[in-house]
Amino acid sequence: KKRLLDTRLIYEYQAADLSSEPCFCPQTEFNDKEDSLFFNDGVRRIDFILVYEDEDKKERREYFEASLMKMGMELEATKSVIDEKLTFVKVHMPWDVLCTYAEVLHIKLPIQPNDLSSRPSPWRYLSCITKYFYPNEDLIRKEAEFFTAPFEKDRLDFFHVRDRDAFFTESMRSRMAYYILSRAPYEIRGSIKKFGITKLLDGGVYKAAYPLHDCRFNVKSKEEGCPNERFLLYQEWAHPKSFYKMQPLDLIRKYYGEKIGIYFAWLGFYTIMLALAAVVGLGCFIYGYKTQETSTWSKEVCDPEIGGKIVMCPQCDRECKYWRLNSTCEASKKLCIFDNFGTLVFAVFMSIWVTLFLEFWKRYQAELEYEWDTVAFLEQEEPPRPEYEAKCLYERKNPVTGVMPYTACGRCVRVSIGIGTVLFWILLIVASIVAITVYRLAAFFAFSARLRAQDLKELEPLKEYVTPQMATSVTASLISFVVIMILNILYERVAIWITDFELPRTKTDYENSLTLKMFLFQFVNYYSSCFYIAFAKGKAVGYPGDPVYLLGKYRNEEANCLLNIKTSGRVRAKRLIASHTSALYVILKKVIPRWEQDYQLQPVSKLGLFYEYLEMVIQFGFVTLFVASFPLAPVLALVNNLFEIRVDAWKITTQFRRVVPEKAQDIGAWQPILQGVAILAVATNAMIIAFTSDMIPRLVYYWSFSVYPYGKSSGHTMEGYINSSLSVFNTDDFSNFSMPIGKVPNMTTCRYRDFRFPPGHDRQYEYTMQYWHVIAAKMAFIIVVEHIVYLTKFILSYVIPDVPYAVKEQIKREKYLTQVILHETNLKLVSKRLKPVIDDALKVTDTSMAMDDLELGF
């Protein structure tokens, strides 16, 4: 029997093959220090915490913990001071285990201090002002820079080891501990081996598994040697009073890992770039606001002698009424704020801005890769996922290393099935949107007929307030909300199942595949209504005598006359997180250890940062794809992001358990997604200006169909544009089905927006020459603008290198010095190993020479 006396759970093993059932005796004492990060002996650091409650599944748990100890980890368990049903298992990695897995994971560690001279900051002359916008240097000190190299256990003497306890940072230790937890077996049945903490958590064997925060976020730890990094992050980053300060990215990366660090770096960079777009967008808005009273077409709409005498045709069958054009006076003025020549300039500017944003982000990302030692984070260095290793049973030669075995699965078939499933779900949400559109058309007529029914006396008081449009919009919105929420919940599970079925090799591949699937669905979900309003609604409506009917029954919706403002809003549902820790302190008045304080925090989502990225990328799409319809979008996005950074910082620092630190070289699949959105944005904005805005028809009228009246100087004018853009319809040509109920006395014609010949003409109600001029101008505008912008984007992408020249030189210098150091290390190592052999050889040589001299003497 083997007794493991160094644990709080004392296991007795009857055999070394881990197949026997251990007995245990849990103890509840601990060192009575609420912020302690060590075992009860105060020496061994806690690298991970496992929490379990029931005893029903103890066989798997005990086998799993025995496997951990067999792999070199040390465990100590203690009962909860709050809930006697809970047991906390503390995990510690000894020095030898840390060295072994640091080599397995290719963790880069310091070799010698960096002797390269850094470039002086261009803002150094303004340091007296800018220092107030950076974290307090007395609290968050700049760390010394080192040249680093992948750790090798046999060359430990040549690494910069000043203190063994601090050589591996807490994030490194947590990362290595999680690597072991993900691969430790908990059950073996024949040839089938089951392993991994993830499956044990899903199966309820453990309730939680997490690394520890180093202290409370609002109270500095008094424990000796505690870095208090969480406290510093809260004070200088997450606290509302620090909203104006730059982010301490190096400390964020050190505490949470590169993946969290690169997210906040991207979010901060995106917010800074938004400031420039917000200034230009605000200028465009002010220009439109100042010119709304002076625009010729707005004056004509509001003029009682022009717009007041123009009677417009009803926009639906029977239920709608005739209306005067000047009733849209205020709406036409508001339209001028967003639909002016400044909008065209701003749309082109945003197309260039998005290119600059992506190119400068690549450069900044390259700098972070060098500073955070992720330049060499390549696929072959990333270990395969445990699920991949377990399910891939085929073997072939690794084409990179030439080493056997290299597991390979039928990814072609798996990916094909995954793509088909994703397309099915995308078509499903498109079908739901089409169905809701049909419902809107059908419900409008149903509500209209019901509200006008004279026999329904109970509805009479509501007629003034409940209009068919309101009733239709409310019910359609509710149905759309329910359908989208249900599809979101179902699709998330399906996307995870498909990605698991595809069996990506590495975790990076897994996350990129899942991200792409989820974004494609969310893209259709969020933007489909915007694309419908921008490019479909009100476009194919025919004319009053021959309207277009959907499914042969429902008349297609018409856009409001002269009002094409499309604003996209979305309601952000923030998770309301409640922490119970403070209440427990008050009620129990007990010393609650660090691991139990963290257990009371919220668990980290399985999808990690996906929804944080998704929220910002969806916003990025609204800012770029439809910015021509709402120039204030960058301003609102900027204000939102200033709060978003601090809310996310506060949330991750105070309300969530500490995440497992992960390596990341970039933002993953979100980079090509952003590039795709940027390319699409050029086309959408050009089409919005061409087909939704009034800009092209105005320009065609100004240059081709307008002249000053006789008696005035020759030239072009916008006078008469409103009358030119409205066609004439004879009210007697309404069909019996579409004939309006009410009619204006002594009125024989009404006007509608289109370019068609009037009644009585040889080609009545057919398109005029002005219509074809406008169509040709729209197509020419799209082609010219797209080519100019795409050419500019290509030139900018070529001129701006992805990696700054200084960073390239630093990377080359570091590689050179690292090779020199390793070369010298190899020489010293070889010399050290050969020294005894050389000494023995010299001794033998000296002895032979002495014997020869002796023989010669005789």
Automatic annotation (TrEMBL):
Anoctamin transmembrane domain sequence ranges: 252-560, 589-814
Superkingdom of source: Eukaryota
Keyword Transmembrane found: yes
Residues annotated as transmembrane: 263-289, 341-361, 422-449, 469-491, 514-535, 616-639, 673-693, 771-791
GO BP: calcium activated phosphatidylcholine scrambling; calcium activated phosphatidylserine scrambling
Domain Anoctamin dimerisation, first and last residues per copy: 38-249
GO CC list: plasma membrane
Chief location of this protein within or outside the cell: membrane
Membrane topology: Multi-pass membrane protein
Listed InterPro entries: Anoct_dimer, Anoctamin, Anoctamin_TM
Keyword Ribonucleoprotein: no
Keyword vocabulary terms for this entry: Cell membrane, Glycoprotein, Membrane, Transmembrane, Transmembrane helix
Subcellular location: Cell membrane; Membrane
GO molecular function, one term: protein dimerization activity
Family affiliation: Belongs to the anoctamin family.
Protein name as it appears in the record: Anoctamin
Gene: ANO6
